[in-house]
Amino acid sequence: MAEKFKHISESHLKGYIKNVLLTVGLPENDSDIVAGLMSDADMIGSDAHGVFRLPQYVKRLIAGGINKIPNIVIEKEKNSMAVINGDNGMGHLVMERAANIAVKKAKENGVAWVGANSSNHAGPASLYARIPLKNDMIGIYVAVGSSNHVPPWGGKDMLLSTNPIAITVPSNERPPIILDMATTVAAYGKVKEKLQRKEEMPVGWMIDKQGMPLTDPSKSNEGFLLPIGEAKGYGLALMFGILAGTLNGAAFGKAVVDFNADATSFTNTGHFIIAIDIAAFIDVSLFKNNIDEVWSQMKGSALLPGFDEIRLPGERSHKIYQDRKVNGVPIHSNLKNALDNISNELNIQKIF
After folding, report:
1. Phi and psi at residue 195, to the nearest 5°
2. 48: which residues sit within 8 A by CB, 6+ positions away?
3. How many helices (H) and strands (E) does the chain have?
4. Residue 122: which of 170, 50, 69 has the closest Cα?
5. 259: which of 24, 69, 146, 178 fits an S-S bond (Cβ 3.0–4.6 Å)?
6. R_g of the chain, CA atoms, integer Å
7. Listed residue (95, 182, 183, 174) closest to 139, CA to CA
8. Lowest mean pLDDT: which of 42-46, 143-147, 259-263, 331-335?
9. Which residues have a Cβ under 8 Å from the Cβ of 313 and sit 6 or more positions away?
10. If residue 98 lies in a helix (H) or strand (E), which one and from where to where?
């Protein structure tokens, strides 16, 4: 039996992605930024949002659905906020710019909120919340998902997406606490990953329009994703969509374009990033030591039967990152086939 996975180094992965992006027309610096963020996604275990998404991005870039040379500008601005127009550029470029603006403003004002419109899919939420984290800040990121797979609670019309949130909190000796979650039980990228790997979905991810469990990812268009906590998850998806979409003049509800199925339409994806300068509230060292104590208290909790460990948000991705730094990123054979198709189409070297 052929081996399902082959491991490659972070630098090799980034180099391949950058070469693809350069070949389809992204400028050198933009290609470097996007490739770095995409390989970061794989390094932290967000496998459905890293190189896995490259075929989709390439398709949209070639078809004109994404602007290869965007003019990303600030549309509106005050001391502690801004709204930026991404000019239909790669979402990674838009939100990397937004996060850095938020950090700069937070250093000056304590807290900053930067929204974005005219953007695109940008990978996993935590990528951008980690930018304030590197500056001893708390980061909060929310986006309108890039396709609607969720109805309002009790309905059938697909009016909502997975609308993810990430919150990052720095610590001292412990790994940072990093929450990165969709408002659905599973992100749609995981459904796509199951489809590529020819694996069934677990019961509880999706149901069909008769309310029965749906486990065949090839039939995902016959059902919908389930929100976390039933009506509560629907409420979160709704409010996040308003804050990341409607407030920024970006798409929400019926206006959301399914970028999985449409390679040419303007998606007008909306996001926002908040940076909170810890030093404006409390001594940074004291705060980080206190977060270490939070770690100890959570990890020290008495366990229910059937559990062998308490895990904190971000602990798994931290361990994956450490492992992949040493052993490389696993590339599934079916993903390699999809990437090889890109390489053949562009007449460039294959990933391996």
Report:
1. -65, -45
2. 187, 189, 190, 192, 193
3. 10, 12
4. 50
5. 146
6. 20
7. 95
8. 259-263
9. 177, 178, 179, 180
10. helix 91-109
- Whether residue 87 lies inside any domain: the answer is yes
181: left (phi over 0), alpha (psi -120 to 50) or beta: beta
Question: Is residue 211 in a domain?
Answer: no
Q: Which two tokens stand for residue 48?
A: 């459905």
Give tens-digit pLDDT for 173-225: 999 999 999 999 999 989 999 999 999 999 999 999 888 999 999 999 899 99
Half-sphere exposure of 12 (CA within 13 A, CB side): 15
Cβ atoms of residues 17 and 38 within 8 Å: yes
Residue 2: pLDDT band (50, 70, 90) is low
User: Residue 72's domain spans which residues?
Assistant: 5-184+227-281+327-346
Place of tokens 């390679």: 263
**81, two tokens:** 């906020």
Whether 133 is covered by a domain: the verdict is: yes
User: pTM of the predicted model, to two decimals?
Assistant: 0.96
State which H helix or E strand residue 239 sits in: helix 231-244
If you search the block for the tokens 């609308």, which residue do you land on? Answer: 163
Judged against a pLDDT cut of 80, whether residue 247 lies above it is answered with yes
Residues in CB range of 345: below 8 A, 6 or more apart: none
Please report, for the domain that includes residue 76, its CATH number. 3.30.1370.60
